[in-house]
Amino acid sequence: VTLILAGEGVPPGNYGNYGYANSGYSACEEENERLTESLRSKVTAIKSLSIEIGHEVKHQNKLLAEMDSQFDSTTGFLGKTMGRLKILSRGSQTKLLCYMMLFSLFVFFVIYWIIKLR
């Protein structure tokens, strides 16, 4: 009776193939390693891309918050201006029309005077 201890009778470096034919097993193993490395590089690329997307989303949210506050302040300013215009429109229309006519005549005479000096 011959007793074979673990590791005896197996060529060095072939402990992992468990007696399978060298050509088929090693080819599959090499293909698996290549595919694993390819998958690892793709996962790394996707991870870095998702981190960049996260940074961009945070930046865009910050810009949107700033725009929202600016729109709120503009809305308040516009509301105050509209209130003043309503108060102005309730006043005497003839007075406003008279001021507009006087201003128009003044501008007309200034332009006439500039043309005459040439």
TrEMBL record:
Give residue ranges for domain T-SNARE coiled-coil homology.
26-88
Task: Report whether Nucleotide-binding shows up as a keyword of the record.
Answer: no
Mind telling me which PROSITE patterns this protein's record contains?
T_SNARE
The record's annotation in InterPro entries points to: BET1_SNARE, T_SNARE_dom
Please give the superkingdom of this protein's source. Eukaryota
Cited CDD domains? SNARE_Bet1
How does the record classify its membrane topology? Answer: Single-pass type IV membrane protein; Single-pass membrane protein
Transmembrane stretches in the record are 96-115
The alphabetized UniProt keywords are: Coiled coil, Endoplasmic reticulum, ER-Golgi transport, Golgi apparatus, Membrane, Phosphoprotein, Protein transport, Transmembrane, Transmembrane helix, Transport
Q: Which GO terms describe its cellular component?
A: endoplasmic reticulum membrane; Golgi apparatus
Question: What does the UniProt entry say about where the protein is found?
Answer: Endomembrane system; Endoplasmic reticulum membrane; Golgi apparatus, cis-Golgi network membrane
Instruction: Tell me which family the UniProt entry assigns to this protein.
Output: Belongs to the BET1 family.
Q: What is this protein called?
A: BET1 homolog
Species assigned in the record: Crocuta crocuta
| GN (gene name) | Bet1
